């Protein structure tokens, strides 16, 4: 009996020690419980949400057995090829791009069924035939680059047959992967190239026969294998792959944990966590919907739990996630294409984009904070949150790949080399930590998984770039871009603001049916010449259309990111979409400011592709007044600033916002005076009323 008593005492002692240990490691348990909290709050399955709201993911086949293994091998080989060329140097342009298309088309026809009734668990015979044709069509280019160059545009019967097949295969695979809108637009452009002599007025041109059109699209680097595909087969693929590797290392969870610890105790609590974590995650993911779903599965239930309405919670996440495509250091795929189109180094585009992106997130963050003040919400108790220092100490190593990429870009290394370096460092760090902890958190299997996921994630971009390349090809063949620029300028009567408004509307309309990359390519070809014709510098013009291409994801009636947020929140989709549109209002105004005054993007002047940067001290006044104007704009949207705003106060505050955003000394003085007036009147009207403080 005495032995049993001693045993019980030992057990009790161990239990006490365990409890003490739990108390001592409170921060650690808080950190570990974050994911669990999301599950307890009823977060939906991420894969299901992606299938429902991400157009590409929703169509994917669920393959199994040897066929699935074959596709996995193809995807891994695609990533291996791009890793090899990033290390040893790319192949000749047409060789690099044709091999890129062989992989992309194979995965596209294999993973995406042709019709709703097509098999979802196996590859149909017709799809195998399309895969074989794709390999033959692009393999012909790969093995005959020199012979094609010597032909000087002359086409044999074989060339003609393969060229027609190339055009049809590109249209079909893009229809499957991206949707029917882009192929339809492309067909319209191809018909325009053929029927040019029958076009009315300014749109008329001499027209081209089928042989000339097919030759231009298939056998040159001006069509399918043009600049967009060139960027896709180098920079873009490597950064998509980099994002896949980061995802495997757990950096997404780190961003959420870090943002939660940093902002969870503020009045806006989980909403501010959503803004910060989505901005961090979006800067490397490049997909509004994917970002909304992955971070939203945690942040949206938390926002609802502290008192935000479901549609508002979904809108916050969608708006913050969408901004990731304009947030350096990585931004989205379109930024790499911009670098190639404009001739500016990628780091210059990143540098110019920083301040507008920060202003966008300040606007969103201010709105969610003012909403919390208006509703009288409170943040999470500080003692229930993990410490920032502990998270950085335990997970901070996950940021090393990002730090490496930023360093490489600043030192002006090629973006492909920067991405490759980030991948290598990420793998080394993750493997080392896994070995030290002996937890198998990162294994060689994860490396292969990242390679597979990266290749599959790049299929949509590759197909969109190939198809959009034909649009660019028609524009260069017919001179259509300059004609469109003339039409826009004529309609706007040579005035800048109407021209910008027309460009914005075109961008948003295109954004309803095209992915960001494709709509940027189309607008860069047709709308940018109209803007630059009126004296706007090239960097501002391209950033302008990029912004409006991005915010289409939160602009009803087709606001896919907002609808994904609504799906998680269990809210009305259209209501969530309009709320997201309101929260993203900064992105509709900021581009006009940096077009009118490029000091906001720290540019003094541009000569060719050389940027003369404005010293930060000289740019500070513009940045400061834009920041105050952004806060005023947020207050106008939320109808709350130092307290609840009356209608007349909102009108004055809106005028103050526009005055402060207009970079002139007089307008800044008027804006500051109006803001001071609002402050005084709010204090006077609310002095006898208890009010929540911001």
Structure in words:
The chain is mainly alpha-helical and 694 residues long. The chain has helices at 2-24, 26-40, 46-53, 65-88, 93-111, 125-143, 145-151, 157-177, 181-194, 210-218, 227-249, 251-263, 269-285, 288-306, 310-322, 333-342, 346-375, 388-395, 400-410, 415-437, 444-478, 480-491, 496-511, 516-526, 528-532, 538-550, 560-569, 573-583, 586-596, 616-638, 647-661, 665-685, and strands spanning 603-607, 610-613. Strands 1-2 form a two-stranded antiparallel ribbon. Helix 17 (346-375) packs across helix 29 (586-596). The longest helix is centred in the middle third of the chain and has 35 residues, at 444-478. 73% of the residues lie in helices and 1% in strands.
Structural class: mainly alpha
The low-confidence runs, each spanning 5 or more residues with pLDDT under 50, are: 5-9, 11-44
Report the count of strand segments. Answer: 2
Number of helices: 32
Percentage of residues in helical conformation: over 70%
Distance between the termini: 65 Å
Q: What is the topology, as strand order, of the major beta sheet?
A: 1-2
Radius of gyration using CA atoms only: 27 Å
Strand content: under 5%
Tell me the quaternary state.
Answer: single chain
Query: Mean pLDDT score, rounded?
Result: 83
Overall geometric form: globular
Largest sheet: 2 strands, antiparallel
Show the helix and strand layout.
Layout: H1 2-24, H2 26-40, H3 46-53, H4 65-88, H5 93-111, H6 125-143, H7 145-151, H8 157-177, H9 181-194, H10 210-218, H11 227-249, H12 251-263, H13 269-285, H14 288-306, H15 310-322, H16 333-342, H17 346-375, H18 388-395, H19 400-410, H20 415-437, H21 444-478, H22 480-491, H23 496-511, H24 516-526, H25 528-532, H26 538-550, H27 560-569, H28 573-583, H29 586-596, E1 603-607, E2 610-613, H30 616-638, H31 647-661, H32 665-685
Antiparallel strand pairs: 1-2
Helix pairs in contact: 2-14, 3-14, 3-27, 4-5, 4-11, 4-21, 5-6, 5-11, 5-21, 6-8, 8-9, 8-10, 8-21, 9-21, 11-16, 11-20, 11-21, 12-13, 12-18, 13-14, 13-15, 13-17, 14-15, 14-27, 15-27, 15-28, 16-24, 16-26, 17-29, 17-30, 19-20, 21-24, 23-24, 23-26, 24-26, 26-29, 27-28, 30-31, 31-32
């Amino acid at each position: 009996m005495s032995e049993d008593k001693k045993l019980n005492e030992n057990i009790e002692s161990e239990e006490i020690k365990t409890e003490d240990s739990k108390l001592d490691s409170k921060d650690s348990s808080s950190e570990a419980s974050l994911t669990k909290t999301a599950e307890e709050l009823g977060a939906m399955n991420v894969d299901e949400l992606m299938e429902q709201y991400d157009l590409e993911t929703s169509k994917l086949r669920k393959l199994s057995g040897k066929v699935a293994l074959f596709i996995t091998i193809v995807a891994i080989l695609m990533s291996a090829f791009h890793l090899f060329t990033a290390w040893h140097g790319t192949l000749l342009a047409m060789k690099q791009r044709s091999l890129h298309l062989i992989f992309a088309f194979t995965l596209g026809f294999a993973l995406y069924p042709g019709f709703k009734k097509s098999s979802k668990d196996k590859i149909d015979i017709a799809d195998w035939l399309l895969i074989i044709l794709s390999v033959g069509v692009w393999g012909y280019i790969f093995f005959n680059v020199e012979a094609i160059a010597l032909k000087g545009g002359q086409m044999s019967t074989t060339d003609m047959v393969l060229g027609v097949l190339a055009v049809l295969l590109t249209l079909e695979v893009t229809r499957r992967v991206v949707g029917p809108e882009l192929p339809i637009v492309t067909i319209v452009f191809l018909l325009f190239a053929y029927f040019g002599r029958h076009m009315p007025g300014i749109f008329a041109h001499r027209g081209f026969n089928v042989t000339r059109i097919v030759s231009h699209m298939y056998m040159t680097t001006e069509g399918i294998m043009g600049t967009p595909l060139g960027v896709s087969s180098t920079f873009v693929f490597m950064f998509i792959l980099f994002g896949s590797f980061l995802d495997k290392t757990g950096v997404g969870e780190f961003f959420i944990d870090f943002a939660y610890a940093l902002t969870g105790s503020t009045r806006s609590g989980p909403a501010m966590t959503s803004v910060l974590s989505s901005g961090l995650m979006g800067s490397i993911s490049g997909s509004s919907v994917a970002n909304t779903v992955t971070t939203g599965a945690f942040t949206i239930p938390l926002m609802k739990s502290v008192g935000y309405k479901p549609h508002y919670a979904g809108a916050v996440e969608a708006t913050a996630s969408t901004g990731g495509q304009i947030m350096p250091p990585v931004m989205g795929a379109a930024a790499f294409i911009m670098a190639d189109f404009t001739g500016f180094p990628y780091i210059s585009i990143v540098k110019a984009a920083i301040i507008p992106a920060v202003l966008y997130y300040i606007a969103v963050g201010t709105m969610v904070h003012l909403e919390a003040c208006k509703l009288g919400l409170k943040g999470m108790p500080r003692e229930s949150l993990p410490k920032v220092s502990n998270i950085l100490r335990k997970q901070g190593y996950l940021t090393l790949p990002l730090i490496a990429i930023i360093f490489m870009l600043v030192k002006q290394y090629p973006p492909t080399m920067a991405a490759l370096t980030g991948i290598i460092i990420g793998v080394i760090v993750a493997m080392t930590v896994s070995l030290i902890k002996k937890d198998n958190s990162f294994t060689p299997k994860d490396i292969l998984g990242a390679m597979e996921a990266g290749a599959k994630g790049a299929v949509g971009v590759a197909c969109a770039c190939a198809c959009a390349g034909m649009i660019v090809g028609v524009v260069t063949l017919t001179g259509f871009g300059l004609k469109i620029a003339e039409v826009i300028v004529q309609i706007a009567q040579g005035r800048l603001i109407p021209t910008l408004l027309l460009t914005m509307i075109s961008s948003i309309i295109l954004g309803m049916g095209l992915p960001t990359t494709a709509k940027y390519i189309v607008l860069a070809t047709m709308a940018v010449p109209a803007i630059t014709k009126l004296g706007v510098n090239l960097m501002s013009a391209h950033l302008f259309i990029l912004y409006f291409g991005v915010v289409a994801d939160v602009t009803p009636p087709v606001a896919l990111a907002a609808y994904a947020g609504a799906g998680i929140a269990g809210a009305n989709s259209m209501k969530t979409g309009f709320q997201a549109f309101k929260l993203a209002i900064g992105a509709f105004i900021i581009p006009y400011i940096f077009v009118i005054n490029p000091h906001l993007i720290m540019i003094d002047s541009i000569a060719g592709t050389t940027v003369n940067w404005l010293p930060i001290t000289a740019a500070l006044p513009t940045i400061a007044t834009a920041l105050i104007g952004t806060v005023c704009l947020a207050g106008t949207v939320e109808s709350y600033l130092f307290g609840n705003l009356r209608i007349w106060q909102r009108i004055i505050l809106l005028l103050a916002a526009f005055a402060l955003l207009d970079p002139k000394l007089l307008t800044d003085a008027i804006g500051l005076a109006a803001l001071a007036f609002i402050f005084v009147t709010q204090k006077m009207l609310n002095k006898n009323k208890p009010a929540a403080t911001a």
